[in-house]
Amino acid sequence: MKLHAKRIVVFILLLVAFHSYGLAQAPPNTDISPVKIKRDVNRILQNPDYQWKSHNTSILNKIGKMFILIFQKFVSFFKKLFPKTKLPSTSVNPIMAKILMVILTVILVALLAWLTAVLIKGGSIQRKSSDKKRTKVQNSKLEEEPKTLDHPEDLLSYSKTMFDKGEWRRSYRYAFLAILLLLDRKGFIQYEKSRTNGDYLRALRRKKQLYPVFRTVCLDFDMKWYGHAPIDSVSCKRFMEHYEDMQGMIGDETEAN
C-alpha cells in the first residue's frame, strides 16, 4: 500500500513538472500588427547611428591628394630610371601632407597675385606709353607749324585765341614762345630753336627779378611739354600772367643796368 502511494505521488510530481515545462516552451504569440513593425523599423532607422553621413572634400584636400599622387608617380618614375638610387618612401605622412598642401596653396596664391599685378602694371604701362606717344605726335605737329608771327604781342594774342577755342596745348606753347620772344626783343636772351631752356636761364642768372619768374616758367614748361604732363586752362592762364609780370619787370631790370 505504501509503495502504491509513493508511485501516485511520483506520478503527480511528473505531471506537474511536464505541465510546467510545456508552459515554458509555449510558442510566442506571432499575431503582431504590420503597422507596429513598420513604426518600430522607422524609429530604429532614425537613430543617428544608422544615418548616412556624406563627407564633403574641400579644395585644399583635393589639391593635397593631387600633390601626393604626383609625388608618388615622380618617385616611381625615378626609381625605374635609377633602380639603385635610394629614395624616400612614396607614402606620405598625413601631417606632412597637410603641411605640403598649405605650402603649395600659399605658393599658388602668391603666383596668382603676382600675375595679376603684372597684368595690371603692364596695362598701365601700355596706357602711359600710348599717351606719351600721342602727346609726342601732338607736340611734333605743333612744333612743325609755320610761325608767321614774329612779335611777342602777336604770339600772346594768338595764344589767347587758342585758349578761347579750348586748345590748351597750343595756347600753352605760344604763351611760352611769347615770353621767349619778349626777352629776345629786349636783349636779355638770344632766341634760337637750337638753344635749350638751360641756356636761357644761364643768360638770365644775374637778373634778380626776371630769373626766379623765368625759372618757374621753364620748369613748368619742361615738365608739361617734354614730360608729357597734362595741360589745362590754369596752366595757360598762368603763363599769360607770367608774360605780363615779366613785361613789367623788364623796365626795372633795364634801369638797374
Describe what this molecule looks like in 3D.
With 257 residues, this protein is mainly alpha-helical. The protein folds into two domains: 60-130; 145-256, Four Helix Bundle (Hemerythrin (Met), subunit A) (Up-down Bundle). It is built from nine helices and no strands. The chain has helices at residues 2-24, 34-45, 59-81, 94-144, 152-164, 168-185, 197-203, 210-226, 233-256. The N and C termini lie far apart (177 Å).
CATH level 3 topology of the largest domain: Four Helix Bundle (Hemerythrin (Met), subunit A)
Mind summarizing the main beta sheet? none
Spell the H/E element sequence. Answer: HHHHHHHHH
Helical segment count? 9
Low-pLDDT stretches are: none
Total strands? 0
Global Rg:
51 Å
Structural class: mainly alpha
Shape: elongated
Write out key terms for the chains shown.
257 residues; mainly alpha; Four Helix Bundle (Hemerythrin (Met), subunit A); 9 helices; elongated
